[in-house]
């Protein structure tokens, strides 16, 4: 018998420490809107796989900061890696790498999560 799970990722969660600040940053960087729900998560208006920013109160002690992704586990696509790199620079985004092999680079969000941008 095959698995009842779909061969599809519905959404990825990104751990954040301040939902308002994270929503503003991701809205600017991705050019999307999002709605804060339940006071601790924000569902971004993405095409395809969803992105949910979450303060994750159920998974940490009160007052404890959430541990960010220490590796780029999420990749955002672009049709122009050079323009995307310049856009990130113009928006004072923290870079982990410059453009690698002519088609990707890695950045950090304000919470320290590593994210990849790839053409």
From TrEMBL:
Stretch forming the signal peptide: none
Domain of life where this protein originates: Bacteria
Domain named Glyoxalase/fosfomycin resistance/dioxygenase: residues: 8-116
InterPro entries the record matches: Glyas_Bleomycin-R_OHBP_Dase (IPR029068), Glyas_Fos-R_dOase_dom (IPR004360)
A Pfam family recorded for this sequence: Glyoxalase
The protein's name in its UniProt record: VOC family protein
């Amino acid at each position: 018998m095959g698995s009842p799970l779909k061969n599809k990722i519905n959404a990825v969660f990104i751990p954040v420490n301040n939902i308002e600040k994270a929503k503003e940053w991701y809205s600017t960087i991705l050019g999307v809107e999002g709605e804060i729900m339940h006071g601790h998560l924000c569902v971004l208006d993405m095409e395809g796989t969803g992105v949910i920013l979450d303060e994750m109160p159920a998974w940490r002690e009160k007052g404890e900061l959430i541990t960010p992704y220490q590796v780029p586990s999420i990749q955002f696509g672009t049709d122009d890696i050079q323009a995307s790199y310049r856009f990130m620079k113009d928006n004072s985004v923290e870079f982990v790498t410059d453009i690698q092999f002519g088609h990707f680079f890695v950045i950090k969000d304000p919470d320290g999560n590593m994210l990849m941008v790839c053409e």
